[in-house]
Amino acid sequence: MQEGYSFAGAIAQMRQHTGVVIPVYFPEGQDNDLARELLEDNVHAYAQQVDDPESICLSVDGEGRGREVAEGLAREYGVQFVVAAENGGKLQALRHGMARLCARDELAYLAAVDMDGDHFANELLNLVRAAEHARRSVGMEEVLVLGRRSSKQRPLGFLRGELEELADRVLLDALAYDAA
Predict the structure, then answer these.
(1) Long-range pairs of 72-78 with CB within 8 A, sequence gap ≥ 24
(2) What's the structural domain count of the chain?
(3) d(C-alpha 50, C-alpha 131), whole Å
(4) 31 found inside a domain
(5) Residue 168 belongs to what domain range?
(6) Is 55 helix (H, G, I), strand (E, B) or coil?
(7) In terms of Cα–Cα distance, which of 79, 75, 22, 23 is closest to 51?
(8) Which of 103, 129, 154, 162 has the most CB within a 10 Å radius?
(9) Predicted model pTM
Protein backbone atom coordinates (compact mmCIF):
# COMPACT_ATOMS: atom_id res chain seq x y z
CA MET A 1 0.00 0.00 0.00
CA GLN A 2 1.34 3.46 -0.87
CA GLU A 3 2.34 5.69 2.03
CA GLY A 4 -0.43 8.18 2.71
CA TYR A 5 -3.14 5.69 1.85
CA SER A 6 -2.17 3.42 4.71
CA PHE A 7 -3.29 4.21 8.23
CA ALA A 8 0.32 4.56 9.41
CA GLY A 9 1.20 6.81 6.47
CA ALA A 10 -1.83 9.00 7.06
CA ILE A 11 -0.98 9.36 10.73
CA ALA A 12 2.55 10.45 9.80
CA GLN A 13 1.16 12.99 7.30
CA MET A 14 -1.25 14.34 9.90
CA ARG A 15 1.29 14.54 12.71
CA GLN A 16 4.14 16.06 10.68
CA HIS A 17 2.52 18.00 7.85
CA THR A 18 -0.82 19.33 9.10
CA GLY A 19 -1.55 22.77 10.52
CA VAL A 20 -4.71 23.75 12.37
CA VAL A 21 -6.22 27.23 12.64
CA ILE A 22 -8.67 27.92 15.44
CA PRO A 23 -10.41 31.31 15.14
CA VAL A 24 -10.94 32.91 18.56
CA TYR A 25 -13.65 35.44 19.41
CA PHE A 26 -15.06 36.27 22.83
CA PRO A 27 -18.04 38.64 22.66
CA GLU A 28 -17.83 41.70 24.88
CA GLY A 29 -20.04 41.83 27.94
CA GLN A 30 -20.69 38.10 28.21
CA ASP A 31 -19.56 35.47 30.68
CA ASN A 32 -17.02 33.58 28.60
CA ASP A 33 -15.94 30.97 31.15
CA LEU A 34 -17.52 28.10 29.23
CA ALA A 35 -16.03 29.37 25.94
CA ARG A 36 -12.57 29.48 27.57
CA GLU A 37 -12.96 25.92 28.81
CA LEU A 38 -14.12 24.68 25.40
CA LEU A 39 -11.25 26.46 23.63
CA GLU A 40 -8.67 25.03 26.02
CA ASP A 41 -10.13 21.55 25.61
CA ASN A 42 -10.02 21.98 21.83
CA VAL A 43 -6.39 23.18 21.85
CA HIS A 44 -5.44 20.26 24.08
CA ALA A 45 -7.17 17.78 21.74
CA TYR A 46 -5.53 19.12 18.56
CA ALA A 47 -2.11 19.36 20.24
CA GLN A 48 -2.34 15.58 20.68
CA GLN A 49 -2.84 15.14 16.91
CA VAL A 50 0.30 16.95 15.69
CA ASP A 51 3.98 16.50 16.56
CA ASP A 52 4.78 20.21 16.74
CA PRO A 53 2.26 22.34 18.65
CA GLU A 54 3.47 25.40 16.69
CA SER A 55 1.53 23.98 13.74
CA ILE A 56 -1.60 25.11 15.60
CA CYS A 57 -2.51 28.79 15.35
CA LEU A 58 -5.08 30.58 17.47
CA SER A 59 -6.31 33.53 15.41
CA VAL A 60 -7.98 36.16 17.58
CA ASP A 61 -10.60 38.17 15.70
CA GLY A 62 -9.93 41.67 17.04
CA GLU A 63 -8.11 43.27 19.97
CA GLY A 64 -9.89 42.63 23.23
CA ARG A 65 -11.72 39.57 21.89
CA GLY A 66 -9.61 36.84 23.46
CA ARG A 67 -5.98 37.88 23.25
CA GLU A 68 -5.26 37.12 26.92
CA VAL A 69 -6.77 33.65 26.65
CA ALA A 70 -4.88 32.91 23.40
CA GLU A 71 -1.61 34.15 24.93
CA GLY A 72 -2.10 31.92 27.96
CA LEU A 73 -2.86 28.87 25.83
CA ALA A 74 0.13 29.65 23.59
CA ARG A 75 2.40 29.64 26.65
CA GLU A 76 0.84 26.50 28.10
CA TYR A 77 0.66 24.38 24.94
CA GLY A 78 3.34 25.94 22.71
CA VAL A 79 0.87 26.92 19.98
CA GLN A 80 1.09 30.11 17.93
CA PHE A 81 -1.36 32.98 18.03
CA VAL A 82 -2.10 36.05 15.94
CA VAL A 83 -4.35 38.97 16.80
CA ALA A 84 -6.17 41.09 14.22
CA ALA A 85 -6.21 44.81 15.02
CA GLU A 86 -9.98 44.89 14.63
CA ASN A 87 -12.84 42.46 14.28
CA GLY A 88 -13.17 41.29 10.67
CA GLY A 89 -15.27 38.16 11.07
CA LYS A 90 -14.49 34.47 11.08
CA LEU A 91 -13.21 34.39 7.50
CA GLN A 92 -10.71 37.16 8.25
CA ALA A 93 -9.54 35.31 11.37
CA LEU A 94 -9.06 32.16 9.30
CA ARG A 95 -7.07 34.10 6.70
CA HIS A 96 -4.73 35.53 9.33
CA GLY A 97 -4.18 32.13 10.89
CA MET A 98 -3.67 30.42 7.53
CA ALA A 99 -1.19 33.11 6.47
CA ARG A 100 0.82 32.48 9.63
CA LEU A 101 0.87 28.73 9.05
CA CYS A 102 1.65 29.05 5.32
CA ALA A 103 5.07 30.37 6.33
CA ARG A 104 5.88 26.85 7.54
CA ASP A 105 7.21 24.95 4.53
CA GLU A 106 6.71 21.52 6.11
CA LEU A 107 2.92 21.93 6.27
CA ALA A 108 1.06 20.36 3.36
CA TYR A 109 -2.43 20.40 4.91
CA LEU A 110 -4.31 23.16 6.71
CA ALA A 111 -7.46 22.61 8.72
CA ALA A 112 -9.88 25.17 10.12
CA VAL A 113 -11.87 24.21 13.20
CA ASP A 114 -14.25 26.08 15.49
CA MET A 115 -13.07 27.15 18.93
CA ASP A 116 -15.97 25.49 20.72
CA GLY A 117 -15.08 21.90 19.91
CA ASP A 118 -17.76 21.38 17.25
CA HIS A 119 -15.16 19.50 15.21
CA PHE A 120 -13.55 16.56 16.96
CA ALA A 121 -9.78 16.32 16.73
CA ASN A 122 -9.93 12.62 15.88
CA GLU A 123 -11.72 13.52 12.61
CA LEU A 124 -8.55 15.23 11.36
CA LEU A 125 -6.99 11.93 10.30
CA ASN A 126 -9.86 11.11 7.91
CA LEU A 127 -9.68 14.56 6.34
CA VAL A 128 -5.93 14.23 5.79
CA ARG A 129 -6.44 10.80 4.26
CA ALA A 130 -9.12 12.18 1.94
CA ALA A 131 -6.88 15.07 0.91
CA GLU A 132 -3.94 12.77 0.22
CA HIS A 133 -6.16 10.46 -1.83
CA ALA A 134 -7.50 13.42 -3.83
CA ARG A 135 -3.99 14.79 -4.43
CA ARG A 136 -2.74 11.47 -5.76
CA SER A 137 -5.89 10.67 -7.74
CA VAL A 138 -6.01 13.93 -9.68
CA GLY A 139 -2.28 14.62 -9.71
CA MET A 140 -2.62 18.08 -8.17
CA GLU A 141 -0.91 19.48 -5.11
CA GLU A 142 -3.70 21.87 -4.14
CA VAL A 143 -6.97 20.26 -3.13
CA LEU A 144 -9.78 21.34 -0.84
CA VAL A 145 -11.49 18.84 1.43
CA LEU A 146 -14.55 19.97 3.35
CA GLY A 147 -15.80 18.02 6.32
CA ARG A 148 -19.42 18.24 7.31
CA ARG A 149 -21.88 16.85 9.76
CA SER A 150 -24.44 14.38 8.48
CA SER A 151 -27.05 16.37 10.41
CA LYS A 152 -26.43 19.85 11.70
CA GLN A 153 -29.80 20.09 13.39
CA ARG A 154 -29.46 17.00 15.58
CA PRO A 155 -26.36 18.02 17.59
CA LEU A 156 -26.91 21.78 17.41
CA GLY A 157 -30.66 22.24 17.48
CA PHE A 158 -32.76 23.37 14.54
CA LEU A 159 -32.07 27.12 14.59
CA ARG A 160 -28.32 26.79 15.17
CA GLY A 161 -28.18 24.11 12.47
CA GLU A 162 -29.86 26.43 9.99
CA LEU A 163 -27.47 29.24 10.89
CA GLU A 164 -24.55 26.85 10.33
CA GLU A 165 -25.96 25.98 6.89
CA LEU A 166 -26.14 29.68 6.02
CA ALA A 167 -22.61 30.34 7.32
CA ASP A 168 -21.28 27.39 5.31
CA ARG A 169 -22.95 28.70 2.16
CA VAL A 170 -21.49 32.18 2.66
CA LEU A 171 -18.02 30.72 3.29
CA LEU A 172 -18.16 28.54 0.18
CA ASP A 173 -19.38 31.46 -1.93
CA ALA A 174 -16.56 33.64 -0.58
CA LEU A 175 -13.99 30.94 -1.37
CA ALA A 176 -15.40 30.50 -4.88
CA TYR A 177 -15.36 34.26 -5.46
CA ASP A 178 -11.80 34.59 -4.15
CA ALA A 179 -10.62 31.64 -6.27
CA ALA A 180 -12.13 33.03 -9.48
Answers:
(1) 73/39, 73/40, 73/43, 77/43, 77/44, 77/47, 77/53, 78/47, 78/53, 78/54
(2) 2
(3) 17
(4) yes
(5) 149-180
(6) helix
(7) 79
(8) 129
(9) 0.79
